[in-house]
Prior knowledge:
alpha/beta; 7-stranded mixed beta sheet; about 40% helix; 7 strands; Pyruvate-ferredoxin Oxidoreductase, domain 3
Amino acid sequence: MNNTNIMIVGVGGQGTLLTSRILGDVALASEMDVKVSEVHGMSQRGGSVVTYVKMGEKIYSPVIEKNEADIILCFEKLEALRWIDYAKKDATIIINSQRIDPMPVIIGKAKYPEKIIEKIKANYKKVVDVPALDMAKKCGNIKTVNVVMIGVMAQCTEIEKEIWLKAIEKTVKPQFVDVNIKAFNLGYDFARDCFI
């Protein structure tokens, strides 16, 4: 596999750290070099968070600059818009269609932008919007949104499904393995025709 630059963007409390740990595990199990960055931003619940994961034959730096991301995994629509400048022109952009109002919107100091996904689709060809919150609810745990999104992303890679499942089993707490496997499979099946 070629070197792949992945950005995980969302808000605090959405599981970006767990996601980056699963991706790191997948890379190691696939015998790739991997670098996972520190989380940038306000990782407390509600603040903007971004994590970089770089995997491939040889990785020297964990940082992704503007126009360098091959995949942006967006756990919230506004965060997708906030970080879109980091995407390559041919990047795969996977967006959870969920809206989480940031504090300036909550207190009335700003307006939540309209038609975010449509604006991104106008400039990028490979955009998949995912009703990840609804899918997580189907699994019985809204905290599995991140693993639904991992399932979608797994479809756009050449990495075998079994490697993803083993990484999830290894990374999540034992009592949550089954619900997370279910979430991954829902995302994986949802994306079956998205990356043809």
